[in-house]
Amino acid sequence: MVIRTEEVIGELNGQSVKLVRLSNNNGMEVACLNYGCTITEIRVPDRNGVIENVVLGFDTLEEYIKHSPYFGSVVGPVAGRITNSSFIVDGVHYQLPSNEGKHHLHGGPNGFDKVIWDVGNVEDESILSFTYEKVDGFAGYPGNLKVTVTYQLTNDNELIISYYATTDKKTVVNMTNHSYFNLSGAIKRDILSHELKVASDRFLPLNDSLIPTGEIAEVEGTAFDFREGRPLEDGVKSRHSQNLLVGRGYDHPLILSRNQKEEICLVEPQSGRKLTIETDEPIVVLYTSNMMKPTFTMRGVEANKYLGVCLETQHHPDAINHSSFPSIVLDEDEEYKTTTAYRFSIE
To answer: Are 33 and 55 within 8 A, CB to CB?
Structure first.
């Protein structure tokens, strides 16, 4: 049995901001805001049964608004960077607002992470449903886009995130969740000793703006080879030009070689916590918070590099500007559907 609680914790632009918490029979809890569908906590046990939070976040709405580098949020309509904040669909040029130099990042300054979503009524207490309707032209994107995101907590200690969208005008969609995981619990340690295993033979190199060049590189013989598992620290120590480019670490799309078969596994050896991710998406963007600076605190811990690792399942970043990448165009008669499951266990 999953128990759901809900409370209003603030107001933004005349709309109520709600904190909703799901709790299962094992003591696992998932807390989230309808502001950006933001996951604020995921509480799971370690090998000694100690239940702690394993994602980065804040205790107040004000901190999320002022400081958050997309902690736990749903980002979109398009995750990642879009070159020169522009794209062309059916010969029509669309200019988006820039929020990272001349480029557009994670839906821009008014992306899905910064809006209030409606909390839907679902009979099944284990499912939390968020809906949002983006009007045509908002944030520069074409089409009236109707979006639903659901979070489901199971008694197998699994969080299942599903995304669904329809449009009345051809547009682009590529959403993901931007949680920063730290399986040590309560940010007791950084994530460099976390061991990551990914079913991926290839990755996408980045240019100086951290946007895919369009090339596809083999992971063999590099710090991007996670097929047998390796500590994240390897990317910090690596002299590979791509690891150095992103500030020593990772901020790269890994192309998955299989789906929904334990393709991503993250383990923190000291706590014994393990996260297994299964998805129908072709890519996981691995980011080791290389750019995080000590300009704010998170629940009493000063922000810094390598305190969280993001595993963003999605389509290829900047796909709309690379004809060789799988399309992220959504037509009027199509449905955007994708699901990613996060299962927590002990090793």
So the answer is: no
Q: 106 an active-site residue?
A: no
pLDDT at residue 262, as a whole number: 98
Mean pLDDT of the region 244-257: 98
- Of 78, 36, 83, 71, nearest to 289 (Cα)? 71
Distance separating alpha carbons of residues 89 and 96, to the nearest angstrom: 13
Across 243-265, b (16+ Cβ under 10 Å) vs e yields: bebbbbbbbbbbbbeeeeeebbb
Per the annotation, binding residues for beta-D-galactose are: 178-180, 251
The H or E element containing residue 242 is: helix 241-245
79-88: per-residue pLDDT in tens? 999 999 999 9
Residues 259 and 278 sit within 8 Å (Cβ to Cβ): yes
312 given a catalytic annotation: yes
How does pLDDT run across 16-32, given as a tens digit for each residue? Answer: 999 999 999 999 999 99
Which of 315, 84, 72, 108 shows the shortest CA–CA distance to 211? 84
pLDDT tens-place string over residues 172-225 = 999 999 999 999 999 999 999 999 999 999 999 999 999 999 999 999 999 999
Pick the catalytic residue: 178, 252, 315, 316? 178
Tokens of 256: 């998955």
Tell me the torsion sign for CA atoms 211, 142, 73, 175: negative
Annotated catalytic residue: which of 41, 278, 281, 312?
Answer: 312
With vertex at residue 119, the alpha carbon angle to CA 63 and CA 172, rounded to the nearest 5 degrees, is 80
**Domains of the chain with CATH codes:** 3-346 (2.70.98.10)
CA gap 175, 49 in Å, rounded: 34
Looking at the DSSP bridge assignments, the partners of residue 230 are 196
Read off the tokens for 316.
Answer: 């290829």
Known binding residues are 178-180, 251
DSSP string spanning 41-69?
EEEEE-TTS-EEE-B---SSHHHHHHH-S
Indicate the pTM of the whole model. 0.97
Give the pLDDT of residue 122: 85
